[in-house]
Task: structure prediction
Amino acid sequence: MNAFDTSLQSGKTKVLRMKHPRRFRSAFLPISRPGGTAGLALVAEKAIKGWLFQCSMCGNCILQTTTYICPMLCPKGLRNGPCGSGSEDHCCVNPGRPCVWHLIYRRAEAMENLEGLLEVQAPLDWSRVGHSTWLALFLEARKRKLLTITALKPLRDWKKGISILFRDVRQPAWWDGDQEHHPATYPEQVSRLQTALTEGEFVVTSEVVPPTSGVSEDFTQKVEVLRGRVHAVNVAENPMATAHMSSLAGCQILKSLGLESILQVTARDYQRLILQSEVLGASALGINNILCLTGDAPMTGRAPFMGLPFDLDATQMLWILRRLRDQGLLLDGRQIDDPPMIFLGAAGSPNDPNPAYDALRLEKKINAGAQFIQTQLVFERTIVERWLEALDKRDLLLKAHVLIGISPLRSLQQAISLQERIPDITIPSTILSRLAESSCPERLGIDMALELIVEIRELPGVSGVHLMALRETDTTNRLLDGLEPILESAS
Ligand code: SF4
Result:
């Protein structure tokens, strides 16, 4: 446990948190302090909304769409749904309080308005941070002549007018988010991975962690074992918020070896400018598969910690990249002639205790542009079935290809530590008992992973598997050796 965790767990801190919940809000400070009318509006809004909603004056208010629970209470500043690592009991950044997005989902469900959460919300306009949204609404209403007596009648029109007004303020022209599905508009496949998925092959992807090193020899040897045995290789981006060789550099090394790669981009490490420039560069290098992730909390890494909240979330990254690809549109409104050719992916959390919530989160990501989903590690068939059912209810299985995350466990201790360190992983007690009783847990771990692949292979909606946490070359070899006959019998 690091210093940050220790301070969070102390009894004194818990008491402080109960007494002064606002101490734990993200800080949104204005670039310039507004004066005059703007200053007065700010003071009034801060006093009222601060008291009612713990508002931190992000200046880009979307309270009407989030059941009047402020999403900016999320320490990562996620405006489109949870990161996938929290629950109603804890937030992955601040374990002492619940994930605010789970509270929003629960309230929306009680209000029978879960669909209202599907609108893709814009990233913060940082020039409005620390300014009054009420004033922005007032000025917009005045511009549209909504404040005249005639405009207020009849009530029906007035309500409609107000709802359009709120929408226009929270959805600026440079964003224009909606609730619709936006399938890719390009006709041809942009990568071997996309071709294999589209042709219905049972696809195998694998994740590698690039070295913390300025040379590539070890990495090159490590990935060589995957040659010809997987369709594509994810190159992790600073896993556990700890610096490694960049994902883009790793992808380029794989490309030079003739291996197909999947570039990982995380909202933690990419702000809006670097996201667009990196993806333009990746496409120019022939790296076309991109997985958009939120990223582990900075506190999971090593001190000194980077700041919160993030500039973007995973849904916003997908929205930006899809528009860049399909409309040639940069976020600043510039049009480009040769947009990047990219195949976009997102992450799913089948272990979510409420799979309907994860299905909602994924629908938003798929609407925004995700074409394939790679999931968190799963260890039980019933978990996958339950989750696929929830996706099917939302009609998502035909809109995106699903690859289930699989990893061979090495020992009982590793299984327990995995479960403790990564909140959205659930390992059933039957598996823990089997590991405890085994004389060769490593061999058993590989056998259990292969058993699970056989079980889920035939489930409708499963397009393949994503192999993760393969640290030892020997384990990888044995797993892939065992996988070969399974894949042959499937084809
Ligand atoms: S950081 Fe993650 S777990 Fe914490 S409130 Fe935000 S979405 Fe929920």
